[in-house]
Amino acid sequence: MTEPTAVAALPEHLRTALADAAEWQQPLYEDLHAHPELSMLEERTRGILAEKLRELGYEVQEIGGGVVGVLENGEGRTVLHRADFDGLPVEEPSGPGYASTHRQKDADGVEQPTMHACGHDTHMVTALGAAAVLAAHREDWSGTHIALFQPGEEIAAGARAMVEDGLVDKIPAPDVCLGQHVMPAPVSGHVAITEGPAMSSAVSMKVVLHGSGSHGSMPHLGVDPIVLGSAVVTRLQTLVAREIAPGDFGVVTVGSFHAGQSSNVIPDRATLQLNFRAYSDQVLEQLVGGAERIIRAECEAARSPKDPEFELFNHYPLTDNDPAVTARVREAMIAQLGEERVEHMPPSTGSEDFSVVPDAFGAPYCYWIFGGFAEGRDSFPNHSPNFVPAQQPTLATGTEAALAAILAMLSADGDEAPAEG
Ligand code: ZN
Ligand code: ZN
How far is the CA of 37 from the centre of ligand 2 (A)? Predict the structure, then answer.
């Protein structure tokens, strides 16, 4: 094992290349922002990404609705950088001239407004900027760069779709994977990074509780699923308060509770939708298993005539940053951006399907965040209709961070590489 080479700031000619990239990044960003597409329906966006990667000299494949560009440049490590590219069914208020007025039919054929309300347009443009500099300056590095663009992050479907479409057999196996997300904090111009859990593991559960219908005046002749459901909701609160260890992180939310139509009819069923979050798979399993146990027991207590039905969906894996990769990426960012612009990232309670790709290869990874809102300006959470990042220094910082991290991992020696075979 050799010591990895130390990381220095990007040399002057790469800084110039970044400034050159900014000239096409701006119109491309405004075009993508104005034309968001819904999860797993991102046809136009996919075409633009594939065309741009080809123009830069990448070998391009479309896999599972995503686009992957591979640039082989001699001996060395293989570093994958991922960006997601779906928009959301959110109506964008008229703001900047490039605000979205785009509408699109969703998977059920219902027309929806669309908006890049999670900032995935910044992810695409910063990833392409880094790819452009790598392609134009092959004398500065050796190895293989993979620019992976995935669809459908917002519904936890895109990364899995790519893996299911044979991603692992279609591209070189990465030694390390990288990714980033724009957020309301830190401020634009800064990045934030942490080792270990960075984003939570999450899953949703739909539950049907069976009662037995009756007249509102004769509750003793039925089984009231609203009373049953209410007991379930209350008792579920004990999962976090009384079942997981006080030092463990967990969230259980009942986000939907539907039953009945009128005041004098006891309905025959209630439907709940639950959402669970944790920083370890073990705690997530404890929460999901505990919820199922409580629901079954409450159904029995209520004389429910039929077993409850459970359906799990929207499963997001844990994003758990590798300590060695994170240390090197942080070092590269500090060298490039300066210590004061590289902050500690508090673990987010949000979730991502980013880690599906590195997990499919068994590769270590690092996922960090970059700021989207200028100091002193109001900032808004992701998915808000007001989530419109300041173009600069957001795009420049995201591009610099991605490029510095990719180059640092291309020149890292061995330690982070997965075992052979
Ligand atoms: Zn989102
Ligand atoms: Zn997002």
Answer: 13
Ligand 1 center to 111 CA (angstroms): 20
Residue 109: how many other CB atoms lie within 10 Å: 6
Q: Which two tokens stand for residue 310?
A: 């459970």
Neighbours of 43 (CB within 10 A): 11
414 confidence band (pLDDT: 50, 70, 90): low
What value does the CA radius of gyration of the chain take, rounded to a whole number of Å? 24
Centre of ligand 1 to C-alpha 200, Å, is 13
Q: How many domains does the chain have?
A: 2
Instruction: Give the closest ligand to the alpha carbon of residue 119.
Output: 2
The domain that holds 302 is classified in CATH as 3.30.70.360
> pLDDT tens-digit profile of 313-362?
999 999 999 999 999 999 999 999 999 999 999 999 999 999 999 999 99
Ligand sitting nearest the alpha carbon of 115? 1
**Alpha-carbon span 133 to 14, nearest angstrom:** 7
Angle at CA of residue 168, ends 166 and 316, nearest 5°: 85
Average pLDDT, the chain: 95
Residues 141 and 239 in one domain: no
Q: What is the Å distance from ligand 2's center to 153 Cα?
A: 7
User: Across the strands, what pairs with 47?
Assistant: none
For the domain that residue 336 is a member of, what is the CATH number?
A: 3.40.630.10
**Ligand 1 centroid distance, CA of 135 (Å):** 29
Whether the CB-CB separation of 308 and 207 falls below 8 Å is answered with yes
Give the per-residue pLDDT at 96.
76
Contacts of 124 (CB under 8 A, 6+ apart): 32, 45, 49, 83, 85, 149
Q: Does a structural domain hold residue 419? A: no
Report CA(118)–ligand 1 centroid distance (Å). Answer: 5
**Residues 27 and 63 placed together within one structural domain of the fold:** yes
**Residue 182 in contact with residue 371, Cβ under 8 Å?**
yes
Q: How many helices (H) and strands (E) does the chain have?
A: 10, 18
